[in-house]
Write a structure and sequence with these properties.
With 118 residues, this protein is mainly beta. The chain is 0% helix and 59% strand. The N and C termini lie far apart (40 Å).
């Protein structure tokens, strides 16, 4: 069974930086796509960033230029470096991965809270 374990998150002041990570465990053959989504209270879940095994990245419009996603395939881990944080970045951040075991499936982490104070 595949599990995604998120680390990091917490409280930071506006303008500050934070790094969160997510490690995938289980009987995994490959992870074609890893990434992050977020959901703020009263809002729909939205794309933050994704990254493929070849390093292709995709960012949500609201974070482009401020956030950077990276991955370490040896550790099966994806990272999100968040700079110039704004109060609007406050949300639960969910790790997302498209994983190949015996078939392709999508998995989600339990989420980690990021709070940016004004």
């Amino acid at each position: 069974q595949v599990q995604l374990v998120e680390l990091g998150g917490g409280l930071v002041q506006a303008g500050g930086s934070l790094r969160i990570s997510c490690a995938a465990t289980g009987r995994i053959v490959s992870i074609p796509v890893m990434g992050w989504f977020r959901q703020a209270p009263g809002k729909e879940r939205e794309l933050v960033a994704t990254i493929t095994t070849s390093g292709n990245t995709n960012y949500g419009n609201s974070v482009r230029g401020r956030f950077a996603i990276s991955r370490d395939d040896a550790k099966r881990t994806v990272y999100l470096q968040m700079d110039s944080l704004k109060p609007d970045d406050t949300a639960i951040y969910y790790c997302h991965a498209r994983v190949y075991t015996t078939d392709f499936d999508v998995y989600w982490g339990p989420g980690t809270q990021v709070t940016v104070s004004a």
